[in-house]
Structure formats: structure tokens, C-alpha cells
Amino acid sequence: MYDNDQRPRQVVITGLGLVTSIGLGAGEFLAGLRAGRSGAKPITAFDTTGFAHSYGCEVADFDPAEWIRTIEPEELGRATQFSVAAANMAVADAGIDPEELRGRRAMVSVGTTDAESRDLDLLAGEQLEKGPEHLSPGVVRRAHAARLSSSIVRELGLTDVEALTIPTACAAGNYAIGSGYDAIRAGDVDVALCGGADAVCRKTFAGFYRLGTIAPEVCQPFDRDRKGILTGEGAGILMMESLESARARGARIYAEVLGYGLTCDAHHPVAPDQDSLARCMALAHRNAGISAADVDFISAHGTGTKANDVTEAGAIRQVFDAPPPTVSIKSMVGHSMGAASALGSAACALSIAEGFIPPTINHRETDPDCGLDCVPNQARPAELSVVQNNALAFAGNNAVLILGRHREAA
Amino acid sequence: MTTAATSAERRTEIKGIICDILEIEPSDMTGTSRFKEDHEADSMGAIEILSTLERTYGIDLDQSVLPRLVHLDAVVDVVDQAVAAK
Amino acid sequence: MSALVFSTWSAVSPYGVGSEPFRTGIRASRGAITALDPETCPGPFTEGGLVPDFDVTEHIGRKGTRTMDRVTAIAVTAVGLLLADGGPELTSRPEDTGLVLGTGSGSVQSIMDFTRDSLAGERPYHVDPARFPNTVMNRAAGQSAIWHGIKGPNTTIAGGRLTGLTALSYATRLHRGGHCARVLCGAAEEYSVQRAWLEWHGRDGDDRTSPLGEGGAVFLLETAQDARAAGRRARARLLTTRFRAFAEPADARAALAECVREALKQAGARAEDVRVVAPAETGGSLAGVEEAAIADVLGSTVPHLLGNRALLGDTSAATASLQLASVLSVLDDQETPPGALALVTAVDRDGTAGCALLAATTNEES
Question: What is the pLDDT of residues B23-33, one digit of tens each?
Fold first, then answer.
């Protein structure tokens, strides 16, 4: 697979950019995870009249001008504003000079479910009101999925760069991080800005509401009384680089990316499949060179729907003789769609670096059909070596990412 | 009041809606042939039926009626009740 | 350097359904843009490159197609054709086969119709649940996998006009990273009234009225050994892909030229061996940029320029995959010397440039 003289490089995470409903930036996000903060509140993104309930986890008080320097914010849809802001944060957090970054060969890879469907909502409204001849050209131009990654390139002024957007729905963040991992590992690029972004939109809320999967007010993953998801939004962008690159500039290392696995159920458009998810975890372990027993905690997909949680728990028990603590940060930040597994990965990196397991909040009684230690309501101190981040998506797309503590060789 | 005639018409119409969603011939469906066991319906099919009935008849059906929508007779009952309650 | 060859491929295009009509059409440089029916395709365009009389049920049967949108139908059909052509061995290990499919933003028609139903219906949740998955951008890739039982990595890629090249690069890494033994890779785009309006409002300058096209192409990428063992002929070898970005349209030419130079250098190849170049023919402020960049690098070598925009229309996210199909259509013949090189190039208004370098197979490989 690799030439003999070219051993795969190690890949480390050295910067985190976070736009979430429980805080902006790695510090605020970390504080939110530790405290078990909830991002749930009434949705303001669209007129919710007619829905019996309409809570979500929106990013409040986000002023794009505060976080985006080069591009005029109105040239970007909300999801792209999130991704660009998070990329700027990640670069600053990594302590790399943007000029130095421009000298490196780079990849920018951003996962998403809806890309700029928030703008497509806007245009659908304009079209209803005024007819298709009268759509706003500025909104049309920014409503492309590719913009989520290409706008980061523009903002940072990168030139030696490969940009891709991965719209593989709600597992997309892990897909994007995996793509950066493979590119750095093989020596194709030195650095990668990878993660996911999405914005709350009417289209997706109405769809999940119609499926009966939206919880009225709280998201309670793995709880006996769980009632579904809360739609959320945000972005998580990880600055990843080769270990050599990180060492050469004396960077702080949050965690090492050990590997990942992908599977497709090829079964049902929306219902998850336990065997296929179990296979995905096993592939991720093999790709990362670990065994299930090495995993110290799992950041679950944990949406809080009946179907997801029981299927995911079943798959975990299928792979793990003794499942480790398994939490869902969606209890705090909601289901941020394509950003979800990027936020999960960032949470895993922070957990490794700071020595704790984030809690599953809103928890009263664990569903015996799930039967997992979901670290209810209170964060737990823990020395972590290997952690696993699960992601599932519509169309049966699964992605499992493995992160580990980076230990300098003695 | 629902007359016998409109009720019979509605039953035919409902049958057409369901057969369309389940992609089966109306002749294959009886009043009590079961959507899931006999016609390979999945959970999405049930929600689709509920959603189409709501829009067609301008009624509100709570998600909690989903487990009741097992065959044509049961669906017609649920719709008749909802229309009467309008 | 990539270890992969292009073996089986398929296309659904304005030439019709299948790789053979595509090959014949491209080799004859036959235009496939026709007048649009104002009843079914109202909107700002009078002409377009549509898949003629496309009825998905003729290709994959009726059951399960009721709520399938057009881009999904194109993708499912293209993948089905490829699998049928590749033989039973191809589907015997579904876990080892990946599928990487490019998209613009999914089906904007499906997405905006769904929102319209929420806005205009009696209740905001009076939307069709069976069509909700159509509004999620991985629908075409996911449904292709479901339909044909492909259980390896399933990834959707968006990169504007570069999409087909980006997907190729991603697919190569998936394979090299050990995530699949072979990978189906391509892109699909539909013609829809909604897409037509969005393109018309979003384009710049004199590019505005140029006709739209639609279609998709999917390629099987595998090692030459696997292709040989399965009795599939290698049509070309993928040497490498290269990408760069530019801040202003004026810098696009230099960015693409650098991509091509680096690709040649990485492959240890000579510019004079490039026989075929398929540019995306991006219009507006980037019109002519690709041709100029190619001339900058290839110098006095004048390759066969294989643009298909004038023949098929602007196929947006499917552009680069259909360019690849064009290249395979001409590379895989008697006249092309073994080892001859082909380039596929693209630039996008979002400031990205990229290319893929292919080589005609040698006698040992094919």
C-alpha cells in the first residue's frame, strides 16, 4: 500500500475551531462540556407557527464579522460563515502563522448534511412570493455546497491546497476528518483543516418533525423516556498535521488520529442497521491498529431517537465484550447534522487532553434496551488513551473515528 | 354526518392512496390484509400513509395512531373518526 | 502515483443511456442540445442537453421508483449499467467495493419543493416524508448503494466544477488507505426547472444564457491485477490528480498551469506526450483560462482538445466526470499509442483549479 521507503506518517490534532450552541471557541466549548451546558431553546431561524413544538440548539449571538476577516460575511451563507469562523479559530488555536500556513501543502475538507439549504429555504420563500424571475443573485451564488470548503481557502489565502466538501449527511464530519487523515498519512499534504458545518433550516426541521423524531424540549439520549432529536447547528474544524510538522514548530498536541472506518448498510434510506454499524466499528479498530478493549470511552452518535439509540447500543455490545462509558454530546448541543461528528471529534480530543469524559445530560433513567453507562448528567474525570467517535447518516452511511493520546516515544 | 355513499367513496379513495404508497395492485389488498406482513410496508410507509391522509382530508392525526394503521379497515376507521371530529 | 486503472465505466447523458452512445457521440463530435419543451421545462432557457426520453423504470424496474428524483435516477441507472458490464465478480464482495459520487448540492428541485410544501401547505409539516431523503445531499450515492447492494465506503463529494476530479482524488486515497479493494467513482447532475433558475441567476456576464446539460458518469477504479484477474480490460491508468486555488480570476491561469506542471512532474511524464486534453470550458470571467494554461505548459505540443460543453451543455457538478468519460472514449482505441497521456482540467469560480493525468494502457496492462 505504501512504498517501502515511505512509512505512513502519524497525524495529530493541534488546533480546534468550534461554533456551537454551548459556546464559541475551544475554551467555551470545553467549559460547556465540563459543566453539562444545554444549548436548547426556541428556534428563531424561521417562523415556527403551526408546529406544536419547535425547540432546537441554535448558535446564539454569533456575529460573523467578529470571526471572519477577509471575506464580506454577506457573501457567505450561514453554514459557510460557521465553517470559515471555525477554521479561523482552529488556525489561531494551533498557533500557526497564517503566512506559514500558506507555505504548506494543505487540504480543506468540510462535511455537511444540508450545506446552504438555509439559503435554499430563503429562495423557496422568495420564489413563492415573487416568482422564480426574482431570486436574489447574491443568495443564489453563495448557496453551493462546495462553498463550505472553498471559502475557508479564500479566507486564509491558501493556494497550494485541495478543497472538498463532503455532503455525506450526518456522518460527514467523520468522513472529512478521515479524508484529511489519509492525505496527511500518505504524505500528499502537510496540514489539513477538516470538520463539518450546518445551519438550522426549515426544510430539515419540517422533515424530521414529519417523521415524528423531534423531541418537544429536551434531547435525552439512551433514556427510557427519550423523545427524539433537537435539530442544531454549528461547525467544528480541526487543524490536523503530520507529527513532524507539529514537532518542528513545537505545537501543542491535543490528540493523535489513529484511524477510521466506513461502511454502508445498503439497506434502508432512514433506518439504521446494527450489523453494518458493528462492522464499521471493527473496521475502524483494525484501521487504527487497536482492539475493542483499548477503547476508554465512546462518543456515540446518540441522537435520542428510539431507533438510533437502541440500534447503536446493540452494535456496541456486539463489538465490545464490556462496553466502555458511552456518551452523547447531542444531549447538550443537539443534532448539528453534518457538524455533529466534527463536534464529537473535537469533544474527544479535548477529553483526551483534559482528562475527563463529558456527560450525557437530561438523563433520568437508562433504557434497559440500551444498557450502557452513559455518564449521566455529570462529567467524569478519567485518564484516556483511546477514544471512539461514532457517526451514522441517512442512507446507511456509517463512519467511526478513533483518536488516541499522543505519547512521545521514550 | 357521513353518509353511507360518501363513506364508501372515501374507502375506495383511501385504498387507492395506500396501494399507491405500497406500490401494489388494489386487487391484492383486502380490508384486513396487513400492510407490514402481507405488503412489505416499512415504518416509512406507515408515516407516509398518515401524512397523505392528513393532507387529503384536512385532518390531524397524532403520531400515536401509527400502531393502529395495520390494514385498510383500521385506516378507514381512523379517518372516519377524524373527519367526524372536524 | 496512483496504482489504479479505469476499467469498466458507464454514462447516462444527452446522448442516451450507456457508455456506447456516449462514445459514439463524442467521437463524432455530435451536438446533443435540443429545444426544451416549454410545458415540462419552463424557465429561462430554451435549449438544453437532456437525457432523451429518460424513464428510469425502463432500466431498473418500477418498484421503488415512485418518489425517486431525477438525479438519483441518473445515478442509480449509471451504477447499475456499470455493475452489469463489470460482471458478477464485481458484486460478489459488496463490503470491499466503495462508491464515491459527486454532486452539486443534491437536487435543488427536491430541496426547494420540500420547503415550498412546508411554507404553502395548510400545516408547515404537510410535507411528503418519503421525499425527505431526497432533500439530503447524499441521497443519490446512498440510494445507488441500497439499490445495488454496495456495502463499502459510500461518500458524496462536492467541489463545484472540479467535483469529478475531487471525487477521483478522494477515491484514490480511500483505496490507498485500505478502506476498499476497488471503488466506483463518478458524479451526476440533473436538469430541473429549479436548477435552471438558480444557474441563470447565479452566473456572471455573457455566460448567463449558455444551455444547461445533465447526466452522469461512473468509473470502476481498481488495480490492473484485479482487472486482469476478473477479465475486465483496463482502459487507462490514473497517474495523478493535482489541485490549487486562486484569489482572483486573473490568477486562475497560473494556478491551473502549476497543477499541470506538478502533475507531469509527479508522474515523471513529458509534456509532449500529452495527446488529449479535456477542459471544463468554464465560462464567464474564467472563459479561455484553461486553454491558455494548457498552452503555457505544453508549449508547441498541440493536443486534441476535447471540450464537450458545446455538445452536451453545462453539466455543472457532472462536468469533470463527463470529461473523463470523453477522454476514455477517445483514448481507448487503435490509433492511440500505448502510454499516450491525457489531461482533464477544470477551474471554478469559487477559486479552485485542478487536473487529472491519465495514461493510455500499455499492452501488458490491457
Answer: 999 999 999 99
Query: Which of residues A206, A224, A248 is at a domain's end?
Result: A248
Domain boundaries, chain C: 4-229, 236-360
Mean pLDDT of chain A: 96
| Closest Cα in chain B to C127 | B51
CB contact under 8 A, B51 and C123: no
Nearest to B58 among C62, C122, C128 (CB): C122
Q: Considering the candidates A301, A348, A363, A406, report the single residue annotated as catalytic.
A: A301
Q: What is the CATH number of the domain that holds A88?
A: 3.40.47.10
> From B63, which residue of chain A is nearest by alpha-carbon distance?
A212
A125 Cα to chain B: minimum distance (Å): 21
The CATH number covering residue B71 comes to 1.10.1200.10
Chain C residues inside the 8 Å CB shell of B60:
123
Per-residue pLDDT, C365: 63
Quote the pLDDT of residue C106. Answer: 96
Beta bridge partners of A241: A12, A191
C4-229 domain in CATH 3.40.47.10? Answer: yes
Which pTM value belongs to this model? 0.97
Nearest CB neighbour to B51, from listed C63, C64, C129: C129
**Same domain? A107 vs A176:** yes
* Yes or no, beta carbons of B51 and A270 under 8 Å apart: no
Yes or no, beta carbons of A154 and C179 under 8 Å apart: no
The predicted pLDDT at position A6 comes to 63
Let me know whether A266 and A240 are in one domain: no
Q: Which residues of A touch B51 (CB under 8 A)?
A: 210
Architecture of the domain made up of C236-360: 3-Layer(aba) Sandwich (3.40)
Domain span at residue B52 reads 4-84
| pLDDT band (50, 70, 90) for residue A392 | very high
